[in-house]
Request: fold
Amino acid sequence: MAGEIGLWGVPLAILGGAIRVSTPFIFVSLGETITERSGRINLGLEGTLVFGAMTAYGVAVETGSTWLGLLAAALSGICFGLFHGWICKFPKVNDIAIGIAMMLFGTGLAFFFGKPFIKPSAPHLPAIAFGFWSTIPQVQAALDVNVLFLIGAALSVLLWWAFKNTRAGLIIRVVGDSSDAARAMGINPNSVRLLATGVGGAFAAIGGAYLSLYYPGSWNERISSGQGLMAVALVIFARWNPLGCFAAALLFGGAGALGPSLQSVGVTQGYYLFYATPYVLTLAIMIATSSPGRSLAGAPGELSITK
Amino acid sequence: MTTKLLISRRKLLQTSAAGAALGFLPYSGSVQAATSATVGFIYVGPKDDYGYNQSHAEGAAALKDIAGIKVVEEENVPETVDVQKTMESMINLDGASLIFPTSFGYFDPHMLAMAAKYPKVQFRHCGGLWNKDKNPMNAGSYFGYIGMGQYLNGIAAGHATKSKKLGFVAAKPIPQVLLNINSFLLGARAVDPTITVQVIFTGEWSLAVKEAEATNALIDQGADVITCHVDSPKVVVQTAAGRGAFICGYHANQSPLAPDKYLTGAEWAWGTVYKMFIDKLQKGEPLPNFTRGGLAEGFVKMSPLGPGVNAEGRKQFEATLAEMMKGGFSVIKGPLKDNKGKEVVAAGKAYPETAIELESMDYLVDGVIGSTS
Reply:
């Protein structure tokens, strides 16, 4: 272990925190972007995330393979997503209300099945040491990047490109902007939304798997501190743009690391205030970028909150 | 969320059956009839969390073999009005005559309100400062002097550290946590007076991601032995071991999580306390209102020393432990300054573990880097 790095610890912790803490936000917000772009809101992703965390941990404990755990989590996420999508296809069903119900259902079910897995330790997902060039262990530790973070980064670019340039992306956008136009094109909006919600659920569950299988890397009933809910808010903050989601998640992760790292360098007064940084930052940017004169830029026209 | 649903169901049953219930429920308020009794335990988190709640649940499990005693438990009960509902349903539906709400925030106002409302039920709270003049006589509190254990942790840590910097992940700046931090530092300073302890408060009893971040931040700043006072030390232990730091445990034995890096740990032994209460209850003796004990009384124990403790450390650890077992050992003794330079204990003054002043501690001693607010 090396000696002091002093105040350099703060920017390093923000960088490290951005990489370590942001991954669940990236996955949940990307998943929610797909769902919302198709014109539906799934607020139940918090429940899907917690259930995914439990499933991944449980399967990893039983089989010893983190990848099987990840796969099982993704499948459970698809089930939750499809269930939400299936209920919402009936007329006069409110997707927000169903989402809240699914959130409670998912967390409750995860607590029920997760009891026997609180004690055992599961293997962790692998990380890639990008800090090999440095001799400072703190830098090495901060640059230990988990594969899921890299996949998340790649996915956000891919989705951004796909929404613009592929047929599938176009179909999702059309369905999200106008059901009538979609029907005129011969597309069934409900099937598209069903699939989009299913994929969104899988993403959220993978975000949960990151929590239980890598960082902090443990399953208990308090594992999520509302990441699933915050990520849904981040989507609006990112204006339904996958690249924006990635940036917002990084910002959120980095701001969250500020509180502990400031205390570690001796700025010890008012730590409750520093812990509020991510939320204050989100509020500030929301206020700065919104205007009473126009509606939210980039909002899908079929969303129940904008309609 | 699930607990809320449960409570409202219970509430409903309770109101509809209230009239009938009053007639036949065994309010064993008069102690002589209490050879059989229902005892309620309330936990703030999951009861198998490698931490505080597990230590209490293990104590509760020790009662299940005693003839005539029925144990009812509820976990994940927030420190809000929810705990009052849980207590009411334990009393009215399960017929509990003795209740142990185990989390700090349950005491005031929740348990005190219930104790006033149900004068025939006995309430004993873990960690609260029960006051004879102000609080109901059917209430009370029990706690263990685990600060002594943190002092011993400090000795083990003091011998293991190379950077002379130790890290402490703490939840909230309440007296018991502050006493643990101070004791940990003073133990380490009994080895080497240049050692410092860096503390990070997370602000909550259980916040997995923030605890991991705090552990990383401490290690980034050069701390090479980490201990904590949070509800479930599992995340802290695993994160610290992953970064190559040594660990001193807390609440329960976490050595299975990191056998090579675990030095020792301060553990609760609540079974002793709960058996004592049940024994008195069954004999019809009055239950004590204010119960405290330490290593000598078997309220607290130390985890076996790990491979990271050298021969010298082992020797000092065992000698100090033997000294503590005699009773009257003082960790906090003058002259002692807080970390703002103010004298908090005058020269010649010493507080043994039993001193009640320690339970209202509001300072961090010189050598601790951190702030109580």
Remarks:
- Chain A has a mean pLDDT of 89.
- Chain A touches chain B through 50 residues (CB under 8 Å).
